[in-house]
Every structure is written in structure tokens, then in C-alpha cells.
Design brief:
Oligomer: single chain
Number of domains: 1
Structural class: alpha+beta
Order of helices and strands: HEEEEEHEEEEE
Number of strands: 10
Helix content: 10-25%
Number of helices: 2
CATH class: Alpha Beta
CATH topology: STM4215-like
Strand content: 35-45%
Largest sheet: 8 strands, mixed
Radius of gyration: 17 Å
Distance between the termini: 9 Å
CATH architecture: 2-Layer Sandwich
């Protein structure tokens, strides 16, 4: 297994999220919302979201439409540690899969909060994903969300998904 297979696995998992229809219960289109983790009706019911949500993948040219929501992702390997002191020991790789959620500026926070909430539920702690080499990648912690802020013509929130994988040394 390689870090590339971990990245590909996490990217595929995000693509699967984008193909889901999500039900959200709203108390109106303001800042009050409650997540409903059942899947069913369209995410396009959320303002400023056009399904599927465009994604700016790493090192791929991407120019977002400033009137629509989109994601950007970064794969950030953090640590590589041998699990024992002999040559054939397993290696424990950890890192962050960062998802930046961008929503149009000056339209309130409901869209941003809804997308962030949906991603936090989807990338829940303990989720096990399998790479092409049948090596599990685990979501190690509940995703962290940074403070939302203005960035150019968008309102941006960052979600950090901590992952861990164990594999044999080459």
C-alpha cells in the first residue's frame, strides 16, 4: 500500500458522498437547523447548492463559479512510524484529509453549516475504508471544523478528517 492509495480511497469516499441524496430538517432558511442523518431527498434543496457539488482536486486546474458552492481537498500525510524495531514491521501512517467548504458570500450560513454538518456525519469516527490493496484506512477522530471566514467571494469552513492506515514496508 502507498500514500497514493490512501489518497485515492479518501477521494473516492468523498465522491460517494457527492452522489448521495441528503435529507436535512430545517427550521427555515436561517441559522437554525438540525441534522437528520437519514438519506433520501435531494441536497439541491439547500440554497446555493447545485448537485453534484464541484470539487477542486489537488494539483488540478479549477475555477469555481462564484455564485455556487464547491469543495477543495488536500491530502496531508503527517506521520510514519514503524510499529516495531525489525525490518518487516508494519508501518503506521497518519494524516489529515482536509475538505474546504466554500459557499457564496453574504447569503447567510445555512448552506455552509449544512454541508459541514453532512460531511462530519459522513466521515464519522471509526469509519473503515478499504483501499485497492485491501488495506483498511480508518477515520481516527470526529472531524474537526475550523472557524468559518470570508475568503474572496466565498464563505469558507475547513474540515479536518484525521485518518490512520497500517501497511507492510516495501
Amino acid at each position: 500500500m502507498s500514500l497514493k492509495s490512501v489518497r485515492d480511497t479518501l477521494n473516492t469516499y468523498l465522491q460517494n458522498f457527492l452522489s448521495l441524496d441528503i435529507v436535512w430538517g430545517f427550521g427555515g432558511f436561517d441559522d437554525s437547523w438540525e441534522e437528520d442523518t437519514t438519506w433520501g431527498s435531494a441536497i439541491t434543496e439547500v440554497p446555493d447548492v447545485v448537485a453534484p457539488i464541484p470539487v477542486g482536486w489537488e494539483n488540478v486546474s479549477f475555477t469555481p463559479d462564484t455564485s455556487k458552492s464547491h469543495f477543495r481537498v488536500n491530502f496531508i500525510p503527517a506521520n510514519s512510524v514503524a510499529t516495531a524495531r525489525f525490518k518487516s514491521a508494519m508501518v503506521r501512517e497518519t494524516g489529515i484529509y482536509q475538505i474546504d467548504v466554500y459557499t457564496p458570500l453574504d447569503r447567510g450560513t445555512i448552506t455552509n453549516d449544512t454541508l459541514v454538518g453532512a460531511l462530519r456525519v459522513y466521515f464519522k469516527r471509526g469509519t473503515s475504508l478499504t483501499t485497492v490493496n485491501d488495506t483498511p484506512v480508518y477515520i481516527a477522530e470526529t472531524p474537526r471544523v475550523s472557524q468559518s471566514r470570508r475568503e474572496g467571494p466565498f464563505y469558507r469552513s475547513t474540515i479536518e478528517v484525521e485518518w490512520v492506515a497500517h501497511f507492510s514496508q516495501p
